[in-house]
Amino acid sequence: MDFKNVPAIVTGGASGLGEGAARALAAAGAKVAIFDLNEERGREIAEELGGIFVRCDVSSAESAEAAFATAREVHGACGIAVNCAGIAPAGKIVGKEGPMPLENFDKVIQVNLVGSFNILRLAAADMATREPNADGERGVVISTASIAAYEGQIGQVAYSASKGGVVSMTLQAARELARQGVRVNTIAPGLFLTPMMSGFPQEVQDSLAATLPFPQRLGHPDEYGMLVEQIVKNPLLNGETIRLDCALRMAPK
After folding, report:
1. How many domains does the chain have?
2. pTM for this structure?
3. Source organism's superkingdom (predicted)?
4. One of 68, 159, 192, 224 is an active-site residue; which one?
């Protein structure tokens, strides 16, 4: 798909991987709308990129529908959507204080999995109204899973379940939306230098990087953005979950 003036939506675009995706898409010529809860940082980045910021809670149907309506009014129907909004709280199934509160598990599922589907459904509906290109393509949706979907560590039960759901949804959605000319892919990142990771002491970051086969360093958000750009460009990439992890296979803890 060509990027020039194509309306793009990036959830979680105010920081981390989402910011990397937003910057890559804007640099390629897309009209970027950042959906996030962090208004101050989101507006700052949107202004820098010549795009717009829209406050959005991805786990809420009403919030996401209103955000899409705003983006559509300003930029037109969405042609590229990137799901980066997510949370990653740790918690054991049975901890020192007993079983994990069910609401803790549910919250992660609501944001990471339901939120990804929420954006997928609305983006696909927008894309179905767009004029197709020569291949019949109308849009591309990219979600973010994690290698924890495959090798979830102790304390990641909710996170792993949510990201496993995103992976499982990818091929099914690609098959179902093929008739609308919408491609669906997922990126499963490994260890990246996100704001959360940057808050760890340097020795912790170094010890984590040492577990990576090659290259032995944390990934940068712009490298995530690079893969987003490549997925949008390549018309044959569809229904795939791509690991972006330096060949890391995580140990139990």
Report:
1. 1
2. 0.96
3. Bacteria
4. 159
Residue 53 lies in a domain: yes
Query: What does the block give as tokens for 218?
Result: 């944390």
Listed residue (191, 164, 170, 167) closest to 247, CA to CA: 191
Using the Cα atoms of residue 107, residue 81, residue 32 and residue 28 in order, give the sign of their dihedral: positive
Q: What tokens does 47 get?
A: 């202004």
Residue 204 covered by a domain? no
Strands 94-95 and 7-11: unpaired
- Active-site residue 159, yes or no? yes
Q: How does DSSP assign 161-194, residue by residue?
A: HHHHHHHHHHHHHHHHHGGGTEEEEEEEE-SB--
CA distance 18 to 104: 24
Domain that holds residue 229: 7-192+222-240
CA atoms of 19 and 151, how far apart (whole Å): 26
- DSSP 8-state symbol, 192: B
User: pLDDT (tens digit, 0 to 9) for every residue of the chain, 253 residues total?
Assistant: 889 999 999 999 999 999 999 999 999 999 999 999 999 999 999 999 999 999 999 999 999 999 999 999 999 999 999 999 999 999 999 999 999 999 999 999 999 999 999 999 999 999 999 999 999 999 999 999 999 999 999 999 999 999 999 999 999 999 999 999 999 999 999 999 988 787 778 887 888 899 999 999 999 999 999 999 999 999 999 999 999 999 999 999 8
Would 170 be classed as within a structural domain?
A: yes
CB 157 within 8 A of CB 90: no
